[in-house]
Write a structure and sequence with these properties.
About 35% of the residues lie in helices and about 25% in strands. By secondary structure, the protein is of the alpha+beta class. The strands form 6 sheets. Strands 3, 4, 5, 11, 12, 13, 14, 15, 16 and 28 form a 10-stranded mixed beta sheet that branches. The longest helix is centred in the middle third of the chain and has 28 residues. The structure holds flavin-adenine dinucleotide.
């Protein structure tokens, strides 16, 4: 290659790099973007099971139809053997109703807006990189970045393996767990969890489940053993990813080889033996370990971290690609806004705040998930240690509140939730894991008084459509409340009356007039109120002159229920 000069140089053509590059070119066809990838695609990669936020981003990027055309299994949720009982239970993404099989390829509409994909990364990553190339990014394969030349916090150039020098206005580290630029810039990482796991996986062909179920509504299967858990993810009609995760210490103490431990785990899971009957293995167990971390900063003078280079939680939540695509999308908006003269320091601060928050929430949830699993009979000491380090107490209500330490307000969606899980679903999940349902924050009260005084009014960023706009929000004790969206409406309602029925009928009238009311709005508003109470924005009270609200949360719902 001859020396290169470009507007944005991206290291890595995985989902983080191609999402960032694709969005940059989509929203500014004049910008030059060069992506440097050490491998030649297609290449295999772990991380196949998505959450529904990913297709939304793919749709905005304009690549959803191409991914759909690959005929990857549609993911409608997960099937778990996890928590307080032996029963298998399902968690479904569709908030209402059940998934109906429909002809494919489909469109990103109706029920498909709530589903995700389980993808063969060798195909998926190539489709994304090819699409970024079509949008105008130059993707250089077999181009490993060897060195980052920098002066203090400013990068001067990259040097590739063949000696080529690359100069850019901005540099993006999307090199995944390698984090080549992050390491070169001496960015420290925080490891807020004692999860120190190892994963072993291989690919299987013609596994029974993949063949009989096809590519319609599939679920990731997450099956606990005494000493770890197994994932089963059909990624094409013929190919299935089967992995095993356990604490790295357990693996060391077992004295088994990687291969023997993998086979032992699979043979001890009866459901899996049935699912893999007649299937053949590709034959090399892949392995990786120690993945939980958050970068202590995600930008410098002229560089940024995106995707897994900036942080990762744990495979248990299937959240890596969500975090990766989200950060790639936001970073593209940030860079474009910076080139228009936007407030660089503020935008970088917001980019870090949001991305670090997301990873931290996922790590917190993973800690809870591991420590609330009674099936880990051989790992009691290990899970007790995670629980102790995390400060976890195992009653559902306390665990629920602990999960919300970072806040139950989902800024991205402007709804109440936690790591993309709506607050009502979260109640049911904590019930499933701990054996007792947690309690709604509005139950037993009838007046809801706003407590927004003494909060600082701040501007938070909304990234999208290639722009970064500021929206008003309140901040107190590390919690943030956007003043728009449904939260803004709750404030309007409670300013009208602290009595919930009066506030809701006022909102019904106001929101209907502007076309903001549909059949699910009242449920969503109640969820927002629940989140606002938990985050301290609203104080629930009891008036003796009116009946109190009974809001009993189910142990099962259409979204979380026993597997039939
Ligand atoms: C065991 C395990 C299971 C997981 N399961 C899931 C799951 O079920 N669902 C999910 O959503 N996520 C999962 N993940 C996370 C998921 O794999 C990652 O979040 C995702 O791959 C991150 O994408 P990325 O683009 O940031 O990095 P990557 O996909 O790793 O891409 C980085 C690219 O950079 C290239 N590169 C690296 N160094 C250089 C260099 N010096 N020069 C040039 N190129 C370079 C690499 O070749 C690679 O192609 C899992 C992770 C692990 C560890």
């Amino acid at each position: 290659m001859t020396d290169c000069s470009t507007d944005v140089a991206i290291i890595g053509a995985g989902p983080g790099g191609s999402t960032c590059g694709g969005f940059l070119r989509k929203y500014d066809p004049g910008i030059s973007v060069d992506i440097f990838e050490q491998e030649v695609f297609p290449r295999d990669h772990v991380g196949e099971s998505q959450l529904p936020v990913v297709p939304r981003i793919l749709n905005e990027l304009g690549v959803w139809d191409r991914i759909e055309a690959c005929n990857f299994p549609i993911k409608i949720g997960g099937t778990y053997r996890w928590g307080s009982s032996d029963d298998l239970w399902n968690f479904d993404f569709l908030p209402y109703g059940r998934f109906e099989d429909e002809p494919r390829p489909g469109k990103f509409e109706g029920q498909r807006q709530h589903t995700a994909f389980q993808v063969d990364r060798s195909i998926y990553d190539k489709v994304l990189a090819d699409y970024a190339e079509e949008l105008g990014c130059k993707v250089h394969y077999k181009s490993r970045v060897r060195e980052i030349v920098h002066k203090d916090d400013a990068i001067e150039r990259l040097i590739l393996d063949d000696g080529t020098s690359v100069k850019a206005q901005y540099y993006v580290d999307a090199s995944g767990h390698v984090g080549i630029l992050r390491r070169a810039m001496g960015v420290e990482v925080e490891e807020p969890s004692s999860l120190k796991n190892i994963a072993l996986w291989d690919y299987w062909h013609d596994a029974e489940w993949a063949v009989s179920l096809g590519v319609g509504g599939t679920r990731i299967q997450v099956l606990s053993l005494g000493y770890g858990w197994i994932w089963f993810i059909p990624i094409t009609p013929e190919r299935t990813s089967i992995g095993f995760v356990c604490p790295a210490d357990y693996y060391k103490a077992s004295g088994l080889t990687i291969e023997d431990l993998y086979l032992k785990a699979l043979s001890e899971e009866p459901r899996l033996s049935k699912l893999t009957a007649g299937a053949t293995r590709e034959g090399t167990v892949k392995t990786t370990k120690d993945w939980s971390f958050i970068a202590s900063r995600m930008s410098g003078k002229n560089w940024f971290l995106a995707g897994e280079a900036s942080g990762f939680a744990d495979p248990i939540l299937s959240a890596g690609l969500s975090l990766t695509h989200a950060s790639g999308r936001e970073l593209a908006s940030l860079i474009l806004e910076a080139r228009r003269g936007g407030d660089f320091g503020w935008m970088c601060g917001e980019y870090f705040r949001r991305n670090a928050h997301r990873v931290r929430q996922h790590i917190r949830f993973a800690d809870y998930w591991y420590s609330a699993n009674s099936h880990f009979s051989d790992l009691k000491a290990h899970t007790a240690e995670i629980a102790r380090d995390a400060g976890l107490n195992m009653t559902a209500d306390e665990a629920f509140q602990w999960l919300g330490t970072g806040g139950f307000v989902e800024e991205d969606m402007e709804v109440a939730g936690y790591s993309l899980i709506r607050i009502d679903q979260l109640h049911v999940i904590t019930g499933k894991l701990s054996g007792t349902p947690s309690t709604s924050a509005i139950h037993g009260f009838n007046l809801f008084v706003l407590k927004t005084k003494n909060a600082e009014e701040v501007k938070i960023a909304r990234f999208g459509n290639g722009r970064v706009v500021s929206i008003r929000a309140l901040k107190r004790d590390g919690k943030v409340l956007p003043l728009n969206g449904l939260f803004g409406w709750v404030i309007v309602g409670l300013e009208h009356s602290p009595q919930l029925d009066l506030a809701m009928s006022y909102l019904f009238e106001k929101m209907s007039k502007v076309g903001h009311w549909d059949t699910h709005t009242s449920t969503r508003l109640i969820e927002c109120l629940d989140a606002m109470i938990r985050d301290g924005w609203v104080k629930p009270k009891v008036s003796q002159s009116i009946p109190v609200i009974r809001h009993i949360l189910p142990t099962e719902s259409s979204v979380v229920r026993n597997n039939e």
